[in-house]
Amino acid sequence: MSSTWDAWTYRSSAARTAQSADIVGYAVHATDGHIGKVDGATYDVGSSRIVVDTGPWIFGRKVLLPAGTIDRVDDAEKKVYVGLTKDQIKNSPELDEGITWDDADYHERVGGYYRGFYGY
């Protein structure tokens, strides 16, 4: 992977900006299958991400995916493709009770976890 990979910025292949179509509700696919639907998405500079409701796959858990993990978005099919396996996503840092998605320590743990899959 490129040494310029940034966990919190959408890759050019994802073609996302604040003006892009909203992806809430889109199906999310890992490299080895469906993982859930987008429950929330941000386009904040330096902290863009999606929140995936995993439904029965990881019952009762939502997963935060940094924007840099998204390979591409298909607006016609309403699908988001992530460059990770289901196990890599399932083993990501859990959001503990009382912590928000914007918590700086959680943000750093998640970014560090995914950085390991992109050559760091």
Describe the structure.
This protein has helices at 86-90, 104-115; strands at residues 27-30, 33-42, 49-53, 62-66, 70-74, 79-82. By secondary structure, it is α+β, with helices and mostly antiparallel strands. The protein has a single domain (12-116), classed as Photosynthetic Reaction Center, subunit H, domain 2 (Photosynthetic Reaction Center, Chain H, domain 2, Alpha-Beta Complex). The chain has a six-stranded mixed sheet. Strand 5 and strand 6 (79-82) form a beta hairpin. The longest helix has 12 residues, at 104-115. It comes from Agromyces tardus. This is PRC-barrel domain containing protein. InterPro entries: Bac_photo_RC_H_C, PRC_barrel-like_sf.
Overall pLDDT level = 88
Distance between the termini: 9 Å
At CATH level 2, the architecture is Alpha-Beta Complex
What profile does the largest beta sheet have? 6 strands, mixed
Distinct helical segment count: 2
Q: Write the H/E string, N to C.
A: EEEEEEHH
Strand content: 25-35%
The structural class is: alpha+beta
Described by its quaternary structure, the protein is single chain
Number of domains: 1
Which CATH first-tier class would you pick?
Alpha Beta
Radius of gyration: 13 Å
CATH superfamily: Photosynthetic Reaction Center, subunit H, domain 2
User: What is the helix content?
Assistant: 10-25%
Low confidence ranges = none
The best one-word shape is globular
Secondary structure tally: strands: 6
- Strand arrangement, major sheet: 4-3-2-1-6-5
